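Posting for a labmate who doesn't have an account.
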Amino acid sequence: MANPAPERLAGGTAGGDLARTVLDGLPHAVLMIDAGSRILDANQAAESFFRSSVAFLTRYDLAHFVPFSSPVLGLVEQVRRTASPFSEYKVDISSPRLGRDRIVDVHAAPAAAPAGAVILVFQPQTMAEKIERQLTHRNAARSVTSLASMLAHEIKNPLSGIRGAAQLLDMAAGEEDRTLTRLIMEETDRIVRLVDRMDVFADDRPAENSPVNIHEVLEHVRTLALSGFARGMKIVEDYDPSLPLVHGDRDRLTQAFLNLVKNAAEALADTPDPEIVFSTAYRPGIHLSVPGTSQRISLPMQFTVSDNGPGVAEDVRAHIFDPFVTTKQAGSGLGLAMVAKVVGDGLELDAGGFQQWQIDVIL
């Protein structure tokens, strides 16, 4: 049964007002629960995280908002039992109320008062894991650069000779043998196309960066997609019109978004009412430390491509941006690897400084 909402804990005094200002300024969701696990208070980030107002939150126990038998409930009991702070990492609190893929680090500590009260901090892992994966995928994409160069030189030349020989044989062969010679030529052409697609990884030329209106890029990609591989699908635009121009290579950004949208469209082939969403947002406070340097990259502009498809299997999710990793029968596994390279190149330090944007993919 719902409990009557208590007054907010931090109000009433100048000190309380300051505490409330600090609490609401925190980027992570903070809850305070009493000895019976009833929610006593919540900051603004918690209201956003739990998709409920503080007045609604304080009417219920914690168990109303987290899945049944969640590790969060056990963590609270552990804190009460030992009177010591504890943390639980990568806890899945996904539910119909909170949504899917809600993975968080949970930090719990005993409160000074009232007796038995516990303070909970929920730190979403989505952003941190995306940034970490972005660095990993950048290195993975780079690892294929030398392989691409070797393939272009060592494979394409012999393939040209093989195809030429097959053409000569085809001229003198009977109809039955021509089936085999044409098969050789077709397979040779297919391998050449595959190698050509890998040439992008061997391209070490600096990007031609300039101020780019990202919404014009996305609109161009949307037009191309709806005219071709995404024909008949719905592409929704959810843009922040206040975003400034970004520093990037228009052609490479266009190709990266095209690859993402093509991948989404292929994943939606069997989905009723397929929908792809382009969104842009300003996310201040997102910074990334670059390993091996003292530099920190500011990434306040976020561009997202999501779809309502079935998602990616958990066993390949962490590797889909690696070269040659694909779940499609006829896929080459290079499209998303190229996206990783474009994003990785965007994190490079050039004359203009570190990039100020990131591309997110909702899997």
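Reply:
Got it, the structure tokens are right above this. The chain has two domains: 14-124, 206-361.
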